[in-house]
């Protein structure tokens, strides 16, 4: 008998509105969503569709205007800032389009920024090895390519063994070949560590790597697609 799915996130009727001058912007409009442990999820949509807003709420970087979101048995809606900080520190890894590395620190030292404060981290060298950068430990960001810098950022994010890895346009600043290398590293984390991975992008090609693809349009889910066969990054047709 197969193991039942373990729901990591459950969002119900999420809305997010904010004022831009005299205009009220509705970034999310009643989003219902369950995400399960071990999935590779792609959230696909045009700029302004609400992708980043949804990711930020799941990651505890933002709060909804209404509705609820739970992480396992933790209710994130209404949590205090200190509770959200603890949630982010213990459970979530973030990868952004821009790498946010400290220029004066080596790749190894950049990863240690997280391992030194995490509850149960893997070794910084182990994290870099997972993304294929063991030989670049002593290199500074300026000595690394854009793809290598992004992989250092991924190693930093996964070094604390997060339950979920949230990636905001992780290949947006990279060329096709380098982007494929970065996506391969992310898929390896999902496969070998069982980490729930959520990637938001406007690049429809990346959807072929996902177990499920969630299409967002004007702050609403327009479609959810389950992929019967998932392909690897090197097979993507960009």
Question: How would you sum up this structure, described in words?
Answer:
The chain has 238 residues and is α/β, with parallel strands linked by helices. It has a single domain, classed as Rossmann fold. 28% of the residues lie in helices and 29% in strands. It contains six helices and ten strands. It has a six-stranded mixed sheet with strand order 6-7-8-3-9-10, with helices on both faces. A four-stranded antiparallel sheet has the order 2-1-4-5, covered by helices on one side. Strand 7, helix 6 and strand 8 form a beta-alpha-beta unit. Helix 4 crosses helix 5. The longest helix has 18 residues. The termini are far apart. The model has no long low-confidence stretch (mean pLDDT 92).
Largest sheet: 6 strands, mixed
Fraction of residues in helix: 25-40%
Proportion of residues in β-strands = 25-35%
Tally of distinct domains: 1
Characteristic key phrases:
238 residues, alpha/beta, six-stranded mixed beta sheet, 6 helices, globular
Write a compact overview of the structure shown.
This protein is an alpha/beta fold.
Fold blueprint:
Elements: E1 7-20, E2 23-36, E3 40-44, H1 51-58, E4 66-71, E5 74-75, H2 81-91, E6 92-95, H3 107-115, H4 124-130, H5 146-158, E7 164-168, H6 176-193, E8 196-201, E9 212-217, E10 220-226
Parallel strand pairs: 3-8, 3-9, 6-7, 7-8
Antiparallel strand pairs: 1-2, 1-4, 4-5, 9-10
């Amino acid at each position: 008998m197969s193991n039942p799915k373990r729901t990591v996130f459950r969002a119900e009727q999420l809305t997010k509105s904010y004022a831009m001058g005299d205009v009220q912007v509705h970034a999310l409009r009643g989003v219902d969503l369950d995400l399960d442990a071990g999935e590779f999820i792609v959230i696909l949509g045009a700029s302004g569709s609400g992708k980043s807003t949804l990711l930020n709420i799941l990651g505890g970087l933002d709060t909804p205007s209404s509705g609820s979101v739970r992480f396992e048995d933790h209710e994130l809606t209404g949590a205090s800032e200190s509770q959200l900080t603890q949630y982010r520190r213990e459970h979530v890894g973030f990868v952004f389009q821009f790498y946010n590395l400290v220029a004066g620190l080596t790749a190894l030292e950049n990863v240690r920024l997280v391992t030194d404060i995490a509850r149960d981290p893997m070794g910084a060298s182990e994290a870099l090895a997972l993304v294929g950068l063991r030989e670049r430990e002593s290199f500074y960001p300026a000595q690394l390519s854009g793809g290598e810098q992004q992989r250092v950022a991924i190693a930093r994010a996964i070094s604390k063994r997060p339950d979920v890895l949230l990636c905001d346009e992780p290949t947006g600043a990279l060329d096709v070949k380098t982007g494929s290398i970065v996506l391969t590293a992310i898929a390896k984390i999902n496969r070998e560590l069982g980490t729930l991975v959520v990637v938001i992008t406007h690049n429809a090609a990346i959807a072929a790597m996902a177990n499920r693809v969630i299409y967002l349009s004007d702050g609403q889910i327009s479609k959810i697609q389950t992929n019967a066969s998932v392909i690897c990054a090197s097979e993507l047709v960009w």
